[in-house]
Amino acid sequence: MSKDIVLAVDLNHHESWDAAVPEAVGIARAKGARIHLVVVVPDFGMAMVSDFFPPDFERKALERAWDELHKLAEEKMPEDVEWQAHVAHGDIAEELLRVTGEVGAAMIVMASHPVDHVRHFLVGSQAERIVARSPVSVLVVRQ
Description:
alpha/beta; five-stranded parallel beta sheet
């Protein structure tokens, strides 16, 4: 069984990595695991929505996510823990689970966001979707 850990990172909410990185690092050190830092850039969902954005918007968003994820990793990941960066594009839960399967991770570590009741009612929680569908253990770190 793999010792790899997927660490979900939301670049828009520093609380997500402030809370989850120490947890993932502690587990990685204890198990001798590698951490896969994963950022998912959401897609537009509907073609007509993309018409409101410049043609190269998604490409630039992916490049920026890659740069910011590497910067974060270089600042927050200790030298004694092996890590690899991944930037995906699409549905957050689907892409996080896809990367988890692709790298053969044994665990997902992610932070929960403070509850926004309107958003939760309309689209649900990413953490809930991932926990419900994950084939591996999920540690949801409360902020």
